[in-house]
Design goal:
Distance between the termini: 21 Å
Largest sheet: 7 strands, mixed
Low-confidence stretches: none
Shape: globular
Oligomer: single chain
Number of helices: 8
């Protein structure tokens, strides 16, 4: 997310090269807020290089600390950070003109995806719901009032997430699915695509990089392919 001079990064991906290259290519040097939605490899694998090479002003996550090599690399860098915090459900952050509502986080359940940080980011009249890997247990704990124009679909379009009830509550105009080609899970699942049939669906395996721009009243979607 970019709001004038402010930059927000949600997760860093499985490896460091794609996100590092993207930030460099776009001339980004300062990251005002880095949100790690789930402390697993696919979300923080690239964060050590980001934190080391960019001016990351604040890092937040759900407070869980799995004993993995990826997390230990990440933890070593955040301990050197000037500002680190744990997000709780109900927290609200403001960065420039962006309002970030934490609608799900840290439910104290062992399963990582049940504790995923789910955020609703608003710029005036346009709302983005970022569902991370929120599973059905996580979905059941989310509050009412989730309707958002832009929906980053949970867990790459997996059937372990994205229940019919949840998708109906979000009722998005645009659904963005981050998923690799020929992935071993065969995501996104057709049932999830059917549930999103009233939305314009964009997929990274088909469309490449997906950029949504908004002035707070209207929005546009641009794709790489």
């Amino acid at each position: 997310f970019r709001d004038g001079k402010y930059n927000i990064l949600v997760d860093c991906g499985r490896s460091d090269d794609p996100i590092y290259s993207y930030l460099n290519t776009n001339g980004i040097r300062d990251i005002d807020l880095l949100i790690i939605s789930v402390p697993t490899r696919e979300h923080l694998g690239g964060c050590d290089r980001v934190i080391k090479n960019f001016n990351v002003k604040k890092v937040v996550d759900n407070g869980r600390s799995p004993k993995t090599e990826e997390y230990e690399d990440y933890e070593r860098y955040i301990k050197e950070s000037n500002s680190y915090d744990v997000l709780e459900k109900g927290d609200t952050l403001r960065i420039g003109n962006l309002v970030i509502e934490v609608v799900g986080a840290n439910n104290r359940i062992e399963e990582d995806n049940s504790n995923a940080i789910v955020t609703r980011i608003s710029y005036e009249d346009i709302d983005f719901l970022l569902a991370s890997d929120c599973d059905e247990e996580c979905e059941s704990r989310l509050p009412a009032g989730l309707q958002s124009e832009i929906f980053k679909v949970a867990n790459h379009g997996s059937l372990l997430s994205n229940s019919f009830e949840f998708v109906s509550r979000v009722s998005p105009e645009v659904a963005v699915i981050t998923v690799s080609e020929n992935n071993q899970y065969n995501n996104p699942k057709q049932q999830v695509l059917d549930r999103l049939s009233r939305s314009d669906i964009y997929r990274t395996d088909i469309h490449g990089t997906i950029i949504v721009k908004t002035n707070g009243e209207t929005y546009s979607v641009k794709t790489e392919k």
